[in-house]
Design brief:
The protein is an alpha/beta fold. The protein is built from eight helices and seven strands, in the order H-H-H-H-E-H-E-H-E-E-H-E-H-E-E. Strand 6 and strand 7 form a beta hairpin. The N and C termini lie far apart (39 Å).
């Protein structure tokens, strides 16, 4: 067993409260960078915005399952919206767009960035429960968020909430971590194999439609609400 795996066994999970405080501090320090690290700490607003547009096109607009939907009539939830990097562009095609994040500071900055987007609704949460009624959303999307959740219990609870707020036959597309990260780093989150995701949702009304990238650093899972 590798040293990293040993450390992850014996090092305690971050609490949900510690995770919230961490992301509030990171947002105050440099939100653009900690949301999108690919361009380094000196990422420009132009680079940040373009990355959001590109990811929206690549992971939602051109996605096979999303293309089957009339987006102009759909209501979507992004779990882990940060400061609105992606939902800024989601709002151009979807009827109603909701974004949640564990960090109040991220949401505060998102509200400033997206103040003129009337169909975007933002909310900070406790990281476990979603402030929405059952069967509310047509689709749920989450990118570079589950990979930072503090532990498996948190991931499972979020999957339960997704199953609850999705409408019947609704679509969810979620990215998970596939390769272990080291506990104690700001970017830590639990890693999974697809069989473990299957186990987590076996008693939930979620059917796995497709997986992509299993065995790599990050992988995608598409779910249908049954």
């Amino acid at each position: 067993m590798r040293l990293r795996e040993w450390l992850n066994i014996f090092y305690p999970d971050e609490t949900i409260g510690e995770s919230k405080e961490k992301w509030n501090q990171l947002a105050k320090k440099n939100a653009n960078y900690f949301v999108m690290t690919n361009f380094g700490e000196n990422i420009t607003e132009k680079q940040f915005s373009k990355s959001g547009r590109d990811d929206y096109i690549n992971y939602i607009k051109e996605d096979k399952f999303f293309r089957e939907l009339d987006l102009s009539t759909k209501c979507i939830l992004e779990v882990g919206c940060g400061i609105g990097r992606i939902i800024e562009f989601v709002a151009q095609d979807f009827q109603e767009v909701y974004g949640i994040d564990i960090s109040e500071e991220m949401i505060k900055q998102a509200e400033k960035r997206l103040v003129n987007k009337a169909n975007i609704h933002l909310c900070a949460t406790d990281g476990l429960y979603y402030p929405f009624p059952n069967d509310f959303f047509d689709t749920v999307f989450s990118f570079i968020t589950f990979q930072h959740m503090p532990g498996r219990i948190t991931v499972k609870k979020n999957l339960e909430e997704i199953a609850r707020v999705l409408k019947k036959i609704g679509l969810a597309k979620i990215q998970f971590r596939g390769a272990p990260a080291c506990k104690g780093s700001w970017f830590y989150g639990p890693s999974f194999k697809i069989r473990q995701i299957n186990k987590m949702v076996e008693r939930l009304p979620l059917q796995i439609l497709k997986t992509e990238g299993e065995g790599t650093k990050y992988f995608w899972v598409w779910f249908r609400r049954t």
